[in-house]
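#data-curation
PF: Archiving a pair of folding outputs for the training set. Convention for this channel: one message per protein, sequence first, structure tokens after, nothing in between. First:
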Amino acid sequence: MPVTLNLYLDDSGTRHPTHKVGKKAAHGYDWFALGGILVRSDAEENARDLHAEFCAKWEITAPLHSSEIRSQNENFDLLRGWEKDKLRAFYEELYILMREAPVVGIACTVDRPGYCGRYLDQYKKNPWMLCKTAFTVVVERAAKCAIAQGMKLRVHPERCNKAEDANLEGYYKALKAEGMPFAKENSDKYGPLTPEQLNQTLYEFKTKQKTSPMAQLADLYLWPICMGGYHASNRPYQRLTDDGKLIDCHIKEDERPVLGSKYSCFENVERKA
């Protein structure tokens, strides 16, 4: 079987432009994002082994879920009873798992207020779902990475529900058949891949369950990438940056608007230093 570049995706936030954000936005920001990790297929076994070793050491049987770990609830409410030293060691070793796994973080994060301000009136209160923007952007940028390495790309979103999974698969098929869906006059500056390039590079679309170690790593990576768009010194984001674990660390600064993680509709966001 040929070596491929594999993109594992998780989602974060509310995908509908005008729906309420709900309780998950406790961090105070309003985004929708799709992203996670890029990993070579021949490096996945190593990543899975590191995940298994971490879970075995800490006697964890539930999937590593970022929001549950941060809030210490649901499957991770046991963390609330741990002594400070033990808890500190757990969080540090969780980060070491992220650092040592042979993966790179990538995402597209859409600021919902910025998106609505730009497109709501333009499209008569019925703009695209945010997942269409986020999915097509992150998959196309991952495809560029695959092409640069002479590989094809597999796309593995975390399974959600039938309707949303079908939407993502529809976007995937449209990319292969028609290319990027954005207006040409606005998107040319990003050097979009042609339909032919995308059709040749996109190799497989297959959802993964939460029990997948790679899906869990995608979940762990996504939140820091999202936060980094609003708060540059967010500690997990800064550590991943310092350790070269994000796609932006592997490209030139002037390539970031074309190849790096995308922060869409952030014009009115005052990014904290």
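PF: Second:
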Amino acid sequence: MKKILLVFLLIFSIKGWPQQKENDKISFSEALALHLPSYKQKAEKAYRLRNFEEAKVLFDSLVNYKLAGSFMDDFGFKNLKGKEVYLSKFKKPVYLLTYASWHVPGKGELPALNKLAEKYSKEIDFVVVFWDEKKTVKDLSKKFNQHISVLYVDETENEGAFVVQQLKHSLGLPTCFLLNEEKQIMKIKRSVFHPYGISEKESFDMNYEAIEEGIANHLLMQERSGMDLALMPE
């Protein structure tokens, strides 16, 4: 009788494993709720003491060990026609960049992003989200090429408050999220900060290298390894 009970327990526990794994998934918003308060307290102290290196270490630790691996919530944004667009609409890995009209990008940042979006458009969805009104975003969208989806959240409309709180006010901006096909966060990065006064060519090269490194190491590597496995003979 004991042996029979053990067999049944084993069968049910094995059946329960996939469900357990599914339940273990944690969303980005949940991960933020768990770890952001402690990070903010320590980071504010570091900035107050002008210990910028410590602040950077704290940010890297938060994103690498607490937020990476969580799954991005299915946030909704608006496209330039005012239509709601959810993150789940994008089926490929996503290079998600949150921006603001008052942020002045480096000289070579947008040209580098445009060039890479054109290069990897078949493998990756490039998405830029602005925190601004439709008219302003429509004007700004002209700076991005056709391979980049430009979306926005207008805070003055009192909509998307939860999205704003999570993506704008939690980690600051501009912030880049690298998401795989399941919208799992593979990496969170900030824009390249380079010395003032460098040439546009130098700025372009630095941004191009940094963006492509993130794409190659955190988006394409996983996608291509999955393709290789699919092509293996059974």
